[in-house]
Design goal:
The chain is of the alpha+beta class. It is 30% helix and 24% strand. A hairpin with a 2-residue loop joins strand 1 and strand 2 (27-36). The longest helix is centred in the N-terminal third of the chain and has 19 residues, at 61-79.
Length: 277
């Protein structure tokens, strides 16, 4: 067996689920393969022709609570900073599986993730979506990709900024489509023009921006009770301001539809611009 002193540090510095080749203390040439597996760290050196294995300690309840507390503290810390939370990890090979899966469910693979500028923030265990306006960072949203209704921590963490005139805008088109979340606006922006309200509330500041745009507006919120109620409120206010508007109702959130389905809901019958799906 290889002495753990000669390889365990390297194995522990490897992303979970990954292996890599490094130098062993027997010489250069990266003869040592170390891996960080689900329940153990392992090593094998081709020159020494020996293996090593160390079982991982199972996380105790108190350890889990301590980790959670650290992540909560990170949530508070990052919400107070101007600029993007760091460190920024854009290499999806290092991300935990659930982070990649969350974006894949919204049809966002590596090219889309790069276009969005999405990245993994390990200290808070969240995916960060930056929001730019005219090329300037104005906001970001950090999502817990493992979040469920049973979670003890918030689904999103956001910086403490004035949201009055804030929207996340993607693409361009003859009609502005209002969505709840950033990924939905991004997906609409692949075909037309998507604006995320970052929730279901249309602020007076954003309403003023819509008036300035002089385009018809489609309201496409999520298909739940909150989305339906907000759609009614928003269309009433748009009509009161003389903005032509309509409501799009789909069976799922816009981000969960295929590009083809998005185009159908938008009433676009020309072929998709880039690769269709
Ligand atoms: Zn060796």
């Amino acid at each position: 067996m290889l002495d753990p002193k000669s390889w365990l540090d390297a194995a522990q510095a490897t992303a979970e689920g990954k292996k890599r080749r490094v130098d062993h203390d027997c010489g250069g040439g990266r003869t040592l393969i170390v891996s960080n597996q689900d329940r153990k760290w392992t090593a094998f050196c081709f020159r020494c022709d020996e293996a090593g294995i160390v079982e991982k300690p199972q996380e105790s309840l108190s350890a889990r609570i301590a980790r959670r507390r650290t992540e909560d503290e990170q949530d508070e810390r990052i919400a107070a900073v101007a600029g993007l939370p760091e460190p920024i990890d854009t290499d999806i090979a290092n991300w935990p599986r659930e982070a990649v899966v969350w974006l894949l469910k919204a049809s966002c693979g590596a090219p889309e993730i790069a276009q969005l500028g999405a990245y993994w923030h390990a200290p808070s265990a969240r995916v960060v979506l930056p929001v730019a306006d005219d090329g300037e960072l104005v906001y970001w949203q950090a999502r817990d990709p493992s979040w469920t209704r049973k979670s003890e921590r918030p689904k999103y963490v956001n910086p403490e900024v004035n949201k009055e005139r804030l929207v996340a805008r993607y693409g361009s088109g003859d009609e502005i489509v209002l969505t709840e979340d950033i990924l939905s606006a991004y997906r609409v922006g692949q075909e037309g023009e998507g604006w995320s309200l970052l929730g279901t509330n249309l602020t007076n500041g954003v309403l003023a921006r819509l008036i300035d745009e002089r385009k018809p507006v489609a309201v496409w919120l999520d298909p739940d009770a909150a989305g339906r109620k907000a759609s009614r409120d928003i269309t009433q206010r748009l009509s009161a301001c003389g903005i032509p508007n309509r409501v799009i109702r789909s069976l799922r959130d816009p981000k969960l539809l295929s590009r083809r389905q998005v185009r159908i809901e938008l009433g676009l019958n020309t072929p998709a611009r880039a690769e269709d799906s």
